[in-house]
User: Fold these one by one.
Assistant:
Number 1:
Amino acid sequence: MRAIVIAAHGGPEVLEHVERPDPEPGPGEVVVDVAAAGVNYIDTYHRSGAYPLALPAAIGSEGAGAVSAVGPGVRDVAVGDTVAWASVLGSYAEKAVVPADRLVPVPDGVDAELAAATMLQGMTAHYLTHSTHAVREGDHVLVHAGAGGMGQLLIQLAKLRGAKVHATVSTAEKEKLAREAGADEVLRYDDFAEALSGRMDVVYDGVGAATFDGGLKALRPRGLMALYGAASGPVPPVDPQTLNKNGSLFLTRPTLADYIAEREELLQRASDLFGWIREGRLRINVSARYPLAEAARAHEDLTSRRTTGKLLLIP
Ligand SMILES: NC(=O)c1ccc[n+]([C@@H]2O[C@H](COP(=O)([O-])OP(=O)(O)OC[C@H]3O[C@@H](n4cnc5c(N)ncnc54)[C@H](OP(=O)(O)O)[C@@H]3O)[C@@H](O)[C@H]2O)c1
């Protein structure tokens, strides 16, 4: 099979497209013929070493496809089933080995490509709007990078819960996408803090260094800063006194793994998302598909702000 691996951390050029022996499933594991693998920011951190991996390493954290082999002790999954997963390394490949307890079934009406595009960012948007801060009717919510993969999903899920959604973007073209996703107000980065000053119940910030201070100013007293990423670079250490000064704020730095650790939670989040897709209430905007061999180009496009919505690799 063909797969993307790295022998050293570095830029997109370290992503190697190589031939590998077909994997065999171990106890509790399943082999899946990958129909599509999602491209995510975390893959670029694994590649660069911002989140170091034991080398050599297989890259890719999300995908979907048809089960081609099951290991000893696996129940509830059979050869031929369409399944999807997130937060499992080695997804940039023609075949992925996935622990059976990390798989979710893909229902009729959702094809494997769409399922791959939904899992990681979709479940992240789900936990951010339902668990980190359970958005209520009438909440004022700020979503940074509103045209991005995460941004378009956060806007839609916050709207489903009845919020008034404000979004930031860098260009007019991205503004159009954020509005199509449902944003009520779309701002640029240079004036959002002043425009929203002290009014937001929650800020969803995946941009990080460039937006963090402005986000604190946009929050109402006792509002919540959900800092879930760092597309513009990491936020420097924060003096707790800053939270006091800006109005007894709450700050969290959540990660998906902690919100899908229990199998019931994993299944519930995925099944909510697939349900909303089937009902036409959630739209997954797959904006670009790349051949597996062009993983490096996908990483370059994602980190240089050229993309919108979801990127997929097709083995
Ligand atoms: N914690 C979690 O559980 C979790 C899970 C999934 C993703 N994430 C995080 O979510 C964030 C978004 O991920 P994504 O895959 O959906 O990416 P994305 O939002 O599609 O792409 C990043 C966007 O960030 C904006 N941005 C602002 N300043 C930037 C800069 N200096 N460099 C690059 N981009 C900049 C750009 O939009 P504009 O041009 O409109 O500014 C860019 O398109 C990432 O930080 C990722 O790590 C976290």
Number 2:
Amino acid sequence: MKAVVLENKGVITYKDVPTPEPHPGHVRLKVKAVSICGSDIKRYISGHRMYPLILGHESAGIIDRVGDGVNEDYVGKHAAVIPLVPCFECEQCQRGYYSACHNYSFIGSRQSGCFAEFVDLPEKNIFPVPEKLPFEYVAMIEPSTVARHMLALGDFKSGQTAIVLGAGSIGLMVVQWLRILGAKLIVVTDISEDNLKIASKLGAHATINPSQVNVEKELQKLVGDGADLTLEATGVPQVLEQTLSVTRPRGRVVLAGNQPLDKSLPLAFIENMMRREISLIGCFMSYSAPFPGHEWTETIDALLNGSLDIDTIISHRYPLSKAPDVFEEIGAHQLTHQKIILNPEEAA
Ligand SMILES: [Zn+2]
Ligand SMILES: [Zn+2]
């Protein structure tokens, strides 16, 4: 089969690799759509722990074979990929904190991913979906679940005010979930006017461009002492530092942007956090018990009733064979994009 393989830092190829056969207890998914995640781009630009590796984890397809011990009825079913492979046995798995598993694997990061014609998956890592959902929508279930999980961790309640820092793919999903769950006010910041326009279309009531105005001052006009809930989705240290001043006392801040590990924050940050009695909450992936969690079932409901807008956040579609060019353009900052869908079937 054809696959897109990360060979080394900054080196990605489209080539023939052995077609996987489903292991016992596994199924084989014929990939119909896969989306490029920011983490795929990071693995390409900054390097990764293992090579060679087939990237890709935001994916949808049709189950075409099953391994020993798996019900044949799965064949022909449409499914989303659940990328986290927890052990289901360790202390944290027992608690239902699957993303803190002591011994997890991850599709497209620690084992072969979905930038390929086929992918072999444990039975527990398929999320069957109704056939009427387009594969592109199904591929976007995983990024949606991350946003939904952020709001669950932040204990978001209908009628609250929220500020979303960063209108990239996760930020835009967060905006949609805030709208769906009944936020009273959704404010979004981003340095890209294009991203802010999309955020408005998806439900933001107000947008702020930090490169043009002072965020704190603008926000004060909208929510006085700050938002009930702040969602950090940029991974930029200066933005992280800003989270406290835009959050009301006793408010919550959920952090989902991956920060550069070689930077540090002044301890005045902790002083501010203490004085305002703000809760800082970390978010990693999108899982809760029972696996994979309500984040996943709620996303299906939102896709079926039309409340989650996927069309607006897909900016590009390419055949899988074009992936190396696409990554190169992204790495050289030559491709302004939202979500990019790769389609293995159109492979040359
Ligand atoms: Zn992802
Ligand atoms: Zn575990």
Number 3:
Amino acid sequence: MTHTRFLALFAALTMAACSQATPEQQIVNDAAEALGGADRIQAVKTFVVEGDGTQYNLGQDVTPEASGQTFAVTDARYAVDVAGGRTRFEFTRRPNFTYFQGPQAQRLVQGLDGVVAYNVAANGTATRAPEAVVTERRIGLYHHPITAVRAALDPMAKVSNAHTMDGQSMVDVTTADGISFMLAIDPTTKLPTRVTSRADNTNLGDVAMETRFADYQDAGGVQMPTRFTMRIDDFTTAEYRAAKQAVDGDTGDLAAPAETAKATPPPPPTVAVEELAPGIWYLAGGSHHSVLVEFADHMTLIEAPQNDARSLAVIARAREVRPEKPLTELVNSHHHFDHSGGIRAAIAEGLTIITHQGNVALFENMAKRPHTVVPDALAKSPQPAMIKGIGQDTTLSDSAMTMQLLPYAGPHTETMLMAYFPQQRILVEADVYNPGGQVFMFAGHLLEELKTRNLRIDRIVPLHAKPAPYAQFAKEASMPVPSTN
Ligand SMILES: [Zn+2]
């Protein structure tokens, strides 16, 4: 062999080695081939999926374990501008349960335009969504075989960790724009079976956000799944069936509405303190309020809602009201995620949590879960969780204050605690009666409950609206309720 021929052979071998796909690339190439070929997938500009389905009510059902509350979804349309990073999901949904906004169908629009996420409400008002929603929708953009595989084929993407689990081939993908997910493909058909992403949930911390694909059909030379099952960890959050799909058809305008273009950073939480009676203060601000109670030697807070930002602000303000007395306890009204989003913050602040006994297991679990995607106060400053369950009417009383905690199984949730102050004739409740609303879906049930209990109440203090006289409550609670389906 001459020197020249040896070099030529060496070069050919090297090229062969270079063109040999890695196991990771092989999974992506197999998926692309199964979907219609890499060239076809990379050429896809847009797609539209139309159909119907079911949405579940994670974190908002009648008990922490329940999953029976659903919304029937119809006239759903999911349009994607693949290269432009734009998505728009429009759908009509109707609750199968007694929903606080009433039984009527709602038309919702959820959009993503690059790094702008927006919602259009039923009345047509468009609002820009917060950064957490942008993150969730940017992740969601890749929860479709076309976008996932197209992104994985991009030479700028990183593919790693090829492995087999439950008989499926899996690969980790980090897209050119920095979004990570795991792509799984079927060992036989090579079609994608699911995309899983690690995401943050305020209450649950690190979660696996997953979309499963099934029942592929041809649409314009591309294999498209017609069944989608979405999950957060083990909880199914939505199921959709596609009735009609189009690749490179007309998506309509996917640009964010002009009024959502300007970013306004969320205002810092404000806490307005109003004395309701000696030793009882209303800590108002935003959409979720709290109540502070003064005992002889300690202070008790009712409700740590929403998230760290809101709840840490409420706790800090509560400590200023009576700086000489320690704030030691938090009473939680119910498990719904918007009312328990500050439980971890309260634990981080050393408060003992008091809740309905039906919520204890959920809160103990919430206290333990890792929050590494978006570390919160408890992740940064771990504290032991002290959680007390209340299973029957319980009076907390000393020389300065008497507060009764009353378990209430109503149509909104079966694991609720109301706080009743017999001396001040005040009842504190969440979500069951919101004065100033359009419909009062649960107030009638509460009225019956209070009559049965024979409580003497002058004022209802709701954690979502301004305090109202009992007479106003009794009137609004007696208004006819639109029937559920
Ligand atoms: Zn609720």
Number 4:
Amino acid sequence: MRHPPASNIDVRKANRNRIYRLIHSHDGISRPEIAQRLSMSMPTVLLNMKALMEQGLVRESGSLESTGGRKALAMSIVNNARFGVGLDITRDRVVATLVNLAGSVRARREAAIPFSTAKAYVEKVGRVVDDMLAERAVDPGRLVGAGISVPGILSADGAVMTQSHVLGVADYAFAPLDKRLGLPCAHVNDANAAGIAEMWAVDPDGRFVYLSLSNSVGGALVWDGNARLGDNRRGGEIGHMTIVPGGKPCYCGMKGCLDAYCNAAVLGKLTQGDVGMFFDLLRAGNAKAAALWDAYAESLAIAVNSLRMIFDYDIVVGGYVGAHIDRSLDDLRARAARRNTFNEQGDYIRACRHKTEPSAVGAALLQIENFIDSI
Ligand SMILES: [Zn+2]
């Protein structure tokens, strides 16, 4: 048959995709093992492997020990066959990353460019990305697209940032920036992007709540490989849960929001904003740091325990605070345990494993995910 029905093509494409994903998650797997694990015939596996190798997406990476007969060949993905660009836009800085199919960062650039709605801003950000790509001499044909992370709420189609208190902007259209980058662009909230990076670093099928404790507090509900956004794409705006009625003013205009008690700047005020240095002081027994931590950790424990009650998933502490919290994690766990109705010990709380620039990396991974879906 010259033109097989669409359903056959769909099945072939799905098989190819499953094979690619299996090699992606099981580096060095052999063809017979692929056939066995996916319950596919060897001819089907061989045909699809040939196609994937011709596309330059997988390679033979060595021979495996065999108990007799011919040695089986180990298969690996070609990590640098494609790249995604990630851009994290914050109030004062821009971070650009280049991420490959394995999720590894191959290049990065950072520049102090305060956010602005002026045309010149788009050009400056574009140049940061250009410089990064030039440094690695990346073949433009290998770029699958760019992900742009912002500290704000996005429209349903993602084309507009409807609101960002941090950037002081409303109804910001991404089109000029997308056009300047000259790549297919996807847009994502910064905490959701960080949650995606964490998912790649830890557990692709995982379900957890990611709590982003940086200059603002945000979060993401990661569920089966996606950040769940909710009806209005505000899912995970944990920073604006009220934890103290009538309490400290929040930048959003309300009082008593979690953000006012648990953003990273609360700890950083002792050390000119340096959260790592704060934890050094705390460990050294500094009394001011201990008092600050006591108030901070009690507020955080309220939030963490509430999230555990709602979702019953692991809670991942991320952002600047999560990157440094390791040695104070047991203390946070104990505080959360004291509030827990079901006598849980707090071991459901863990520190993020992806500690550097998770939002810029997660934004790039959105495009890597899209590409892998298309294989
Ligand atoms: Zn608020």
